Amino acid sequence: MLCRSADLIAEAHASGSGIAAFNVITLEHVQAVADAARRTGQPAIVQISQNAVRHHGGDVMPLAAAAGAAARTGGTRLALHLDHVEDFALLHRTAECGASSVMFDASRLPDAENIAATREAARWAHGQGLFVEAELGEIGGKGSAHTPGVRTDPADAARFVAETGVDALAVAVGSSHAMVSRTAELDLQLIERIREKVPVPLVLHGSSGVPHTTLRAAVKHGMTKINIGTLLNVSFTRAVRATLAQEPEVVDPRRYLGPARDAMTDAVADCLLALTTSDSP
Length: 281
Ligand code: G3H
Ligand code: ZN
Fold this sequence. Notes:
Blueprint: H1 5-15, E1 19-23, H2 27-40, E2 44-49, H3 50-55, H4 61-73, E3 78-85, H5 88-91, E4 101-104, H6 111-127, E5 131-135, H7 154-164, E6 168-171, H8 188-197, E7 202-204, H9 212-220, E8 223-228, H10 230-246, H11 253-276
Helix pairs in contact: 2-4, 2-11, 7-8, 9-11, 10-11
The structure holds glyceraldehyde-3-phosphate and zinc ion.
């Protein structure tokens, strides 16, 4: 069933659990998320980044249509989200492509411009009934929010949310994008301090680099939406490499895309189950 991101996120926020959001690039990514959600019985968010849209010639519709179709025919709850959207032109296609939420990312801009652009994006998106996530940018010359080593200041975060009116906030607490090993260490006390000051759900980007036990701890300390992308690509590419190494004569893409999709399905299912497992005290 295609449902609204706002409902999945609100449900997780209210119950203190996490909702996983997976970045998709190919049709196989979409199928992997849908199959893993069905296998585990867990809801999930399928997200398409502006970079992925660029890969598809700038057109969000084909991949979004695939995600919408997979959600509608699958036996579980999936929502569609547009991720790291920097252009207003793509923002304006959010509802039309079937997504119910969007991360508007003006974090590359100086703080005041980020706030102004995000406020404008949120105002427009709310008029369309969309749920909006955003991110603080460079504050005090410390680099963008997901530069390794950068941390979100709780008071800055609260001010950003109040001034922009966004519905969820991406925060920098130790993860960074595109990690291929699970070695990130999160500042759990900082997550708690941000949660105390910020009324909206918090979003962890770069979650591929975070061990499952740490992800669970992050949720326990106040994180709600868990964004995972690179992990799928690591599984995909590893499986493709293995198939081609074993069978170098293969030319039919189904021979390597099939195992790649299976590997991504297992990886996504692992994440979905990891978020529902509880660690012994
Ligand atoms: O917005 C997407 C996420 O932050 C994914 O990050 O590819 O490092 O898991 P990741
Ligand atoms: Zn991200």
